[in-house]
Amino acid sequence: MRLLCTYLILGQKTSMRAIGCCLVIIAGFLLGVDQEDASGTLSVVGVVYGVLASLCVALNAIYTQSTLPIVGDSIWRLTMYNNLNALVLFLPLMLFSGELGEVMFFPRLFNVTFWMWMSLSGIFGFAMGYVTGWQIQATSALTHNISGTAKAAAQTVMAVIYFSEIKTFMWWVSNVIVLLGSAAYTYVRKQEMDKKAVIMKSADRKPLMSTKVEDDRDLV
């Protein structure tokens, strides 16, 4: 889905090696879904919402990458616009959902501790938005999505270990496959970016007078 959206919206092609790594990640996820189904904990509604959430995350990264040139490749400016848009969009949503009245009668509305934690969460939210845009700018929308997938898989494994949950052997295999596929994608993309950097560096070192010298030789 992410590969398709990247190609259709941004017009960017992905190398076969990177696509192979993505297929490994997809296989790991499918195996994990199969294990959830076998254990009786699979929710169809949960799967649907998960797919929609994945689509929204992919589109957010893709449109972030396509919007950056419009704001002069400035992450600060893009983050500011995102926060201003969110402020405007959430006000009518709060009004129509009745949450505005809940806020007015909230018992801790003027509590200093409450606003301290709210401000801290806002700072972290702003920082996450900035770092997300920075990562997309430095790499690509697809790479950002793959890193998010690896993070989610790692967090899932750590949570299962922390809460001492019992999972099947194949469940562990599925998460290992996802993590290995993500690591392989990272390695492949690093090689591709290093190769691209070398080509660009070689082009920058090309003598500016080479064309003129060749033209002069032709005239002689």
TrEMBL record:
Domain of life, source organism: Eukaryota
Assigned keywords, A-Z: Membrane, Transmembrane, Transmembrane helix
Record bears the keyword Membrane: yes
Cell location: Membrane
Membrane topology: Multi-pass membrane protein
Parts of the chain that traverse the membrane: 42-63, 84-106, 112-133, 145-163, 169-188
GO cellular component entries: membrane
InterPro entries for this protein: TPT_transporter
UniProt-recorded name of the protein: Sugar phosphate transporter domain-containing protein
